[in-house]
């Protein structure tokens, strides 16, 4: 006898499907999910690691990484040289993985850059997991792919800059918060505070920008009473504060003689390093706020600020490709969920990622200036909103057509099996088979049109961002054709359109939004379009590109000194007679190539800016008198200090030919004990 499929009432079936769409992602993974995620992770690994042996090693941080790998004192306190006489001008947490990698594998450029590659790939994988738990596998795949192909992400993950670690740790914190809201458990909320505290070790106060958003999200959406939620938020905030300030408190309690002098401070105070030099001075007209040392052009940037900083011709192509889509998703994701319970998880996700984006945009706009790579921290929010938004728009799009398709399918089944059904079953009341009212979709107006409109908006915005440079103009026709195919296919869907054709149209539309930013992202593999080592970015923008329009800037890795530096190191090593320091240098700019080439104790006078008051002239004279220092290397590229004035008045300048140079240029080597 022919098997008879169960025929359910159309209204009941549609109601159950609608409920399933809104209750969260399916438990079972679709067959395409794992292969697709694996492909995205492979693409991310290739983009971030290609040519890693010639990675953009930041000169200052690269020197510190090699020194930190040689000495526990330098490792813990972030010493710029192996003796740990002065620290870097940041907290050292972000460079600990780099130093461990160099300690394990040796002083190679790829060893210093490897942790950034791992951190970048982990961020993509972790964002996929978080978005999947929030909005389903389709949204998670879009988010992971979007983050992978964000140009500033590719450029930054190929460099040695703290923002990569900051982004990973904050994404982990967002995942813990999401779990805390979903499960009402305290431990994930405490874990969120720990992740934020660890992110503070990477980039200090910037890690705290998400705290108001996280606190508001938990207070608004977590289960439990209002008082219980508030107490939990306070507890998690206290945990974040303790973990954040742990290194600062240890440095503050350590005697000054037992640790390096803290660069960027006028009083060797760790709180001045964090809250002054790397805090208030970046938003105040007083560059010496809270004990900070005045920044110079080498330590501060004055561009990329104001309300339009995310969409200017430099920053826009780095990160803003999905900005209109993300804003649209955040707004509609909240508006369309009005009337849902306070604990609605879908709306909560849009509030969290939208708040992340809004707070960072506001702070960047109000600061004195930003490097383009600072915006990498908002890339996960843009990617999550893009994925979650497209998934939401897709569900509303499919909701417009599914009832018609289901009704047609069920009518065909009823016509086929009607004789057997009438013979075997009592007819059900007519009311139970009446279609459910479609007031829900009628109230939503034309929500199904938002999906193709979002694709058009994103594709047009890509043309706008690329237009000033026309860098990947050959990809623009491809993006336009894909967008047309996708939108026309979605727009002309009918009752007899096969699901495969709809999926193909959607895939074409999504590809249209990705193809132009992908072109910019891939350009970062070419050193000509990868920005400076101190300010990585993709494409033909930025000071580095305009200064070298036809040739990539020179980059020096670990253990690869040029002939000039080799000759100087040989001279100093040959004439060294037991002194503690190989030499003293004026500012880090002068010491960086020597420290990257060879791990030696070098007294860096003035720190990164050259203006940090260490060592004093008296301290320098004492070191020379006790035979701990003999040579000093000065430069005209940094401001004079009491220490450099002492060198010029008490030491003898050495002829450049003595250390294989025809001329000093902007440098001058001095012997402070010529009678020895």
Structural features, described:
The protein is mainly α and 676 residues long. The chain is 57% helix and 4% strand. The strands form two sheets. Strands 4-3-5-7-6 form a five-stranded mixed β-sheet, sandwiched between helices. It has a two-stranded antiparallel ribbon with strand order 1-2. The longest helix has 46 residues, at 379-424. The protein is globular, with a radius of gyration of 30 Å. It starts with 9 loop residues before the first helix and ends in a 5-residue tail after the last strand.
Low-confidence stretches: 1-27, 405-410, 419-444
Gyration radius, rounded: 30 Å
Estimate the global geometry from the Cα principal axes: globular
How far apart are the termini?
Answer: 110 Å
Relative strand content = under 5%
Q: What is the quaternary state of this protein?
A: single chain
Q: How many helix segments?
A: 26
Number of strands: 7
Mean pLDDT: 87
Question: Strands across the major sheet, in which order?
Answer: 4-3-5-7-6
Structural class: mainly alpha
How would a crystallographer describe the biggest sheet? 5 strands, mixed
Share in helix: 55-70%
């Amino acid at each position: 006898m022919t098997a008879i499929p169960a025929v359910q009432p159309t209204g009941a079936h549609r109601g159950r499907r609608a409920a399933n769409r809104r209750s969260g992602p399916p438990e079972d993974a679709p067959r395409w999910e794992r292969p697709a995620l694996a492909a995205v992770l492979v693409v991310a690994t290739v983009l971030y690691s290609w040519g890693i042996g010639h990675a953009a090693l930041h000169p200052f941080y690269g020197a510190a990484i090699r020194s930190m790998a040689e000495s526990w004192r330098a490792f813990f306190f972030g010493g710029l040289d192996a003796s740990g006489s002065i620290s870097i001008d940041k907290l050292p947490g972000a460079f600990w993985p780099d130093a461990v990698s160099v300690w394990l594998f040796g002083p190679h450029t790829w060893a210093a850059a490897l942790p950034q590659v791992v951190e970048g790939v982990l961020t993509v994988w972790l964002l996929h997991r978080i978005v999947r738990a929030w909005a389903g596998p389709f949204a998670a795949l879009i988010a992971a792919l979007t983050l992978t192909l964000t140009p500033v992400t590719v450029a930054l993950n190929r460099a040695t800059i703290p923002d990569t670690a900051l982004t990973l740790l904050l994404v982990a914190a967002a995942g813990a918060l999401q779990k805390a809201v979903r499960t009402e458990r305290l431990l994930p909320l405490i874990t969120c505070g720990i992740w934020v505290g660890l992110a503070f070790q990477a980039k200090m106060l910037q890690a705290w920008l998400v705290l108001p958003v996280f606190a508001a999200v938990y207070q608004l959406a977590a289960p439990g009473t209002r008082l219980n939620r508030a107490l939990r938020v306070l507890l998690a905030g206290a945990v974040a504060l303790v973990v954040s300030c742990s290194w600062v408190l240890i440095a503050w309690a350590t005697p000054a003689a037992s640790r390096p002098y803290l660069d960027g401070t006028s009083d060797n105070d760790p709180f001045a390093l964090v809250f002054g030099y790397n805090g208030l001075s970046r938003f105040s007209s007083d560059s010496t706020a809270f004990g900070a040392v005045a920044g110079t052009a080498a330590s501060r940037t004055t561009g990329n600020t104001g309300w339009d900083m995310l969409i200017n011709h430099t920053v826009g192509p780095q990160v803003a490709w999905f900005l209109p889509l993300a804003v649209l998703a955040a707004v509609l994701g909240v508006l369309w969920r009005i009337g849902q319970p306070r604990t609605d998880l879908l709306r909560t996700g849009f509030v969290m990622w939208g708040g992340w984006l809004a707070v960072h945009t506001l702070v960047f706009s109000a600061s004195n200036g930003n490097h383009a790579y600072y915006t990498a921290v908002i890339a996960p929010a843009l990617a999550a909103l893009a994925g979650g938004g497209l998934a939401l728009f897709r569900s509303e799009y499919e909701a417009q057509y599914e009832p018609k398709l289901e009704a047609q399918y069920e009518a065909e089944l009823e016509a086929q099996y009607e004789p057997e059904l009438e013979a075997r079953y009592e007819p059900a009341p007519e009311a139970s088979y009446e279609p459910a009212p479609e007031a829900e979709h009628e109230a939503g107006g034309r929500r199904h049109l938002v999906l193709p409109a979002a694709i058009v908006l994103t594709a047009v915005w890509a043309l706008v961002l690329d237009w000033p440079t026309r860098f990947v103009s050959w990809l623009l026709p491809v993006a336009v054709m894909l967008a047309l195919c996708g939108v026309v296919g979605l727009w002309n869907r009918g009752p007899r359109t096969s699901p495969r054709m709809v999926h193909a149209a959607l895939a074409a539309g999504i590809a249209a939004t990705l193809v132009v930013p992908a072109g910019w992202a891939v350009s970062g593999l070419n050193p000509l379009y990868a920005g400076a080592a101190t300010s990585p970015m993709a494409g033909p923008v930025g000071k580095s590109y305009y200064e070298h329009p036809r040739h990539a800037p020179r980059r020096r890795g670990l253990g690869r000194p040029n002939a000039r530096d080799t000759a100087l190191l040989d001279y100093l090593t040959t004439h060294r007679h037991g002194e503690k320091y190989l030499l003293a240098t004026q500012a880090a700019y002068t010491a960086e190539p020597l420290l990257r080439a060879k791990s030696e104790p070098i007294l860096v006078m003035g720190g990164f800016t050259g203006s940090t008051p260490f060592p004093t002239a008296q301290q320098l004279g004492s070191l020379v008198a006790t035979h701990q220092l003999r040579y000093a290397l000065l430069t005209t590229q940094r401001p004079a200090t009491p220490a450099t004035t002492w060198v010029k008045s008490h030491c003898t300048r050495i002829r450049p030919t003595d250390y294989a140079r025809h001329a000093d240029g902007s440098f001058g080597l001095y012997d402070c004990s010529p009678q020895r």
